[in-house]
Amino acid sequence: MYTTQHLRLRRMMLCALFTALTAVCSQIALPMPWGIPVNLALFAVYLAGVRLGPVWGAVSQLVYLGLAAVGVPVMAGLSGGPAALFGRTGGYAIGYLAAALITGALAARRQTFLRFCLAMAAGCAGCYALGTVWFMAVSGIGLWQSLTLCVLPFLPGDAVKILLAAWVGVRLRRALPGGEGGNAR
């Protein structure tokens, strides 16, 4: 039987693991002509939500953002610091908190491939909503142009990331029974 201290340590270790996974996946990026890279960070964020649950999944992303804020080069292109985090696209990185929280909350009850896909799609929408509002405020660009620059070109890649993350999430649940899932609140 696990003690409370053991469970807390396990959650912290998993939180650190998903923080690191987000940092690594942020570096797997394709530069785009409009300056916003396509990377795999949301893939890691989705997995954090389904494996750690809403609270600890969001905590893993809060740690990621904290590292970025103090200058650790964890963001795309090995960037970090306040300029990277609070720049035009920083709202999307901050949206990782919302994505992990929403994904974890919606995937907690029934952990199936379809449920994971739907939860991740909702998490992605939360990330995009926060990021787009932030982008509009910082850049002064209107909604339609912001969506055209920051959302629409990324939707096909996000669909692939969601399918892949849901598939991996189901496999992780099977491979690691008793995982945190929705129970890590």
Descriptive labels:
71% helix; 2 strands; mainly alpha; single chain; two-stranded antiparallel ribbon
Radius of gyration, in angstroms, nearest whole number: 16 Å
Total count of helical runs of at least 4 residues = 7
Topology as a string of helices (H) and strands (E):
HEEHHHHHH
Largest sheet: 2 strands, antiparallel
Structural class assignment:
mainly alpha
Helix content: over 70%
Give, in spatial order, the strands making up the sheet with the most strands. 1-2
Average pLDDT number: 91
- Our estimate of the beta-strand percent is under 5%
Spans of at least 5 consecutive residues with low confidence = none
**Span of the ends, CA to CA:** 19 Å
Number of DSSP E strands? 2
Plain-language structure description:
The mean pLDDT is 91. A hairpin with a 7-residue loop joins strand 1 and strand 2. The protein has 7 helices and 2 strands; from the N terminus they run H-E-E-H-H-H-H-H-H. It is mostly helical and 185 residues long. The radius of gyration is 16 Å and the shape is globular. Strands 1-2 form a two-stranded antiparallel ribbon. It has helices at residues 4-27, 41-69, 82-85, 90-107, 113-139, 143-150, 155-175, and strands at 29-30, 38-39. Helix 2 crosses helix 4 (90-107), helix 4 runs antiparallel to helix 5 and helix 5 crosses helix 7.
